[in-house]
Amino acid sequence: MTERKPGVVSVVLVNYKGTDDTLTSIAELRKQDWPQDRLEVIVVENGSGPEHLGRLKASDLDFTLVDAGANLGFTGGCNLGVEKSSGEIVAFLNNDARPDAGWVREAMATFASGADIGAVASKVLDWEGVDVDFTEAAMTWYGMGYKPFAGSPDTGRWESETDVLFGTGAAMFIRAELFEQLGGFDDRYFMFYEDVDLGWRLNLLGWRFRYQPKSVAFHKHHASMNKFGDFRETYLLERNALFTLYKNLGDEQLAAALPGSLALAVRRAIGRGGLDSTELDLRNPGDDSVPTIPVPKTSMAGIYGVDQFVEQLPSMTESRRAIQATRVRSDRELLRLFGNRDEPAYPIENYLAGYDKIVHSLGVLEVGTRRRVLIITGDSIGEKMAGPAIRATQMAKQLANEHDVRVISLTRSSPIDPSYEVVTVPHRHPRQMVEHEAWADVIIVQGHALRLFPVLESTRKILVVDVYDPLHLEQLEQGRSDDVDQWNRQVLDASDTLNHQLELGDYFICASERQRMFWLGQLAGSGRVNARTYSRDPDLRSLIGVVPFGLSSTPPVHDQPRVKGVVPGIGKNDKLVVWGGGIYDWFDPITLVRSIAQLAERRPTVKLFFMGVQHPNPDVPEMDIVAKVRAEAEALGLTGKHVFFNDAWIPYEERGAYLLEADAGVSTHYEHLETTFSFRTRILDYLWARLPIVTTAGDSFGDLVAEEKLGVAVHEQDVDGLAAALETAIYDKKARTEFIGNVDRVREQFTWENVLAPLVEFCRNPVRAADKSVRDTAAPVEVHQMRVRVPDRKKLYGIRHDVGRAVHYFRTEGPRSVAGKIKRRLQNR
């Protein structure tokens, strides 16, 4: 393989009996607004004869001349030119084209904007710069690539960059190593559609072909082909279209498209020649006394094209197997790049009638356009769910409107919505994830999934990482009660997990603008805020977007009494304050209990109800704060009188009925780093149920409550202030009316439909991050190197872990459940 020079662009021109045009092109290339020492011009003399070769040798222009010795066609000439070149970028320019002064510069800037941009398609106009030659690429269902607006006036309509299926070989750029990896242009084509085939194969490997309207060239068009004639051109177009279709289309689509394409090629040949295919029908007059029928070359060109496709089938099948084995993008994903596939192309009446019959009878246009989105959460999915699982399933529900969605739980799952699929993949069985990764086009992950499943770590699919939960900041509080070494290990381990995710992701989603600033800092430290990501989008919204936790747009329903008059000690007319969600070490329920004690002295009807103590995910242990707050309530004589603990976890679909019985929602925490960047999802449930909110200031929702007057935000550990705030929210009718009115106004912006909009939009057109190149299928996956030193990383498997889970299940589900799980584990070994 040629050693490539960084920053050098090698422009390849193929000359066949067009030396005047070629010399004009070379002269224009030497006027480029690009350093001449980084511009290499290669001219391949393609068997034009001694006169043309002599003129090129005699020229004093600066270029490298390569004598092919014979006519190798456009494909062979270009491939030979690349072989003799040295630049890291190769450009192809028709010898009858002239480049604008910024042609190279603008293309190179486009490569710099994305490491996954494998090629750049120039905007090509006619020689006078009036009419369009190439601005968009399209592909018919029967394999013929075309330029939709060729010949139309350039009205300025095509001035935006976009991804295309292919660029025109008249003026395009490609990474030299990628061109070599693809095997160059397919020499079997000779000319025509070789650029279509190359672009299609490039896209199948996960690279992008980017149209850049600022990189402009002017083209005389088909100056070389005029020397051969129309019949040979027709032959090449017919044959090469079948080559392209057969090699690149997936199995399912090819099964429908290939028979139709062959039938259509024959119908096109009959139509071009004006032949009557019923001429040999026994019901028509005539006999076999005349053994020949006059058939024009324009018809035989199509028939010969089909026959040569048959002749080349063995070698085409070998190519097809290699292409299909290494493709990473499905026909569904690429469909948007095909443009209008339903384009007959030839205005021949008999042909058009046959075209309609084939399309309507064989279903050749029926291609599923839905992407396959895989969402992975570590939490349980089913009747009882915590935040991560709720978020994952709501993503699935919204994305299922446009895509096929599958949600995987690493713990346990049961179906809850028919619009998407739910599967369990235990982390102990990483091979089970292989089929799901292969199925997906886009993968969305939460938590530790990338660390647990090698196939996800090495995936070449588009990867979205949900970092709404800053795990390492949680560990700063969660591990506080451990010895400092164990605490430190937990924090560093979480940090390494997140750094690993930040290295691999193509797109990240977080919970708030405040969080986004935090994650941008960590992304910068991981090297992801760089020239490529910044050049694509200076605000970096294409790298990380804000997707908060959301709430249902359907109001909660109170189907039956749940707390008031049901829970012993809570009367029907009592005033109920709810703590929605779990009790974790970074919260401050103790100050809340003390404030309830104070408020109860003057307002004996106040009751505090903790909605959930035991987390539904068995991997989440009960935290120390639970025992502490129980002890505090007991010591103050409040348990069962003014403070109540629900030891189970309320089913997700039932939580609305509980919330509707409340008079206020509360969330209290300490002011520390975790608080600053947290997003308290329980607050959203309060908005959903139209509850006045009382919360500690200092986090995103604390600021929102204060700014929008949704309730009262108080300072941390302020027992008196908290008691007064609760009294206002519960007993002050005027204040309550104002709070509830503001809640009604604000809550709409947090519906799942609204908050998930950035993710939904990304999945409509998922792209690799600007600094993420396409992984070579043959290249080994680099082993993740920890950026932080984590002594004695905690294992999520082994005897100690299993014993802990067994104890959890014994406490929460009883001995029969433990016995059943052990039995299933032994059966799966």
TrEMBL record:
Belongs to the glycosyltransferase 2 family. The lineage of its organism: Bacteria, Bacillati, Actinomycetota, Actinomycetes, Micrococcales. SUPFAM superfamilies: Nucleotide-diphospho-sugar transferases (SSF53448), UDP-Glycosyltransferase/glycogen phosphorylase (SSF53756). Residues 574-742 form the Glycosyl transferase family domain. InterPro entries: Glyco_trans_1, Glyco_trans_2-like, Nucleotide-diphossugar_trans. This is Glycosyltransferase. The keyword Transferase applies. Pfam families: Glyco_trans_2_3, Glycos_transf_1, Glycos_transf_2. Residues 10-121, 159-223 form the Glycosyltransferase 2-like domain. Pathway: Cell wall biogenesis; cell wall polysaccharide biosynthesis. It comes from the Bacteria. Keywords: Glycosyltransferase, Transferase.
